[in-house]
Amino acid sequence: MKVLGIESTCDETAAAVVSDGRVLSNIVASQIDIHKEFGGVFPEIAAREHLRVILPTIKLALKEAGCIKESLAELRDNKTIDAIAVANRPGLIGGLMIGAMTARTLAEVLGLPLVAVDHVYAHIYGVEPAEMRFPLLALVVSGGHSTIYLLESPTNYQILGETRDDAVGEAFDKAAKILGLPYPGGPSISQAADAYKATGKEQLLPAPKLDNPYEFSFSGLKTAFLRRAQEMAGGNFRMSSDEVADKLADEQKNELAFVFQESAVRILLNALEKAAKVYRPEQIIISGGVAANSRLRDKAHEVFGACGADSGASKLLLPERALSTDNAVMIARAALAMGLPKTAPRDLKVTPN
Ligand code: KG4
Ligand code: ZN
After folding, report:
1. Residue 243: which of 178, 335, 171 has the closest Cα?
2. Ligand 1 pocket check: which of 166, 172, 174 to mutate, most ligand atoms within 8 Å of Cβ?
């Protein structure tokens, strides 16, 4: 079975062809350089950019996979793919509509089955499905979501907890902005934190206390971070967040980035560890853009390596970095793993939240 995956929920336009576990092509057109000057994703510009590049991106993915030579129309007579999978939820409305309309039109014109996929759930499939063993715990950490899933199988799963407010990626982005570091904040914070010479005596930011141990809250972390930054900048708590960066030396920024990253990683892994002790999964997966973070990856190996036997988790699986951030391989893989559940093209809806 060969599936074309399409992803356009945020600021990446992506297309990929996956055939029974093998990635035949993986094209990602990133808009990061376009949004950098705004310090975050500008939804209207994102939508226009998706519209501009979606067909060339799909064509390139099909060409690289050897499914077409030149034109999409070749697929009408020559069914070199078996289905089209598209992320139709959640995300920015403009990008969702462009992805869904493109997928829907192609499915109708070419007479191919259409599969609608949840983008957040699909992040789990940054990992190769053949490597998965169930029951499985998955932590998806991205710019819009921080969610712990429990999977009995690809079609039988539940959400144990998600964030009540900001997502962890969003918190990374906001912390970077306060420090005057470029968007996206995750890689910027990580780079600044690496440049800091840690003493081990740094005081971490407070972790929230929530009734559900598998839920997250990052808005308090963001505020605590701003307070610490204002303090180090020698100002009072009324100093606006835009003024802080200019009053901080590079070494102070690096320290703040380090403290933020350590605090965020601790919050994520504490919740996952608690879930692992209760649900004793065969496997643990951490995916989503923030799973590209080296400190999170190293610490996860430490935590789940050390208490693997105790938690019942015999293996931690992390997607390669390029499949942690947004891509269309995960969309096609999720559709395949779920058994290609069909949606009639005319019934395809998009759901931003
Ligand atoms: O999954 P993703 O590519 O898009 C969404 O679905 O949101 O995640 C993007 C998020 C951004 O907030 C970005 O700052 C964060 O992932 N991110 C990172 C790293 N690389 C990307 N966060 C921490 N460390 C990184 N190395
Ligand atoms: Zn994502």
Report:
1. 178
2. 172
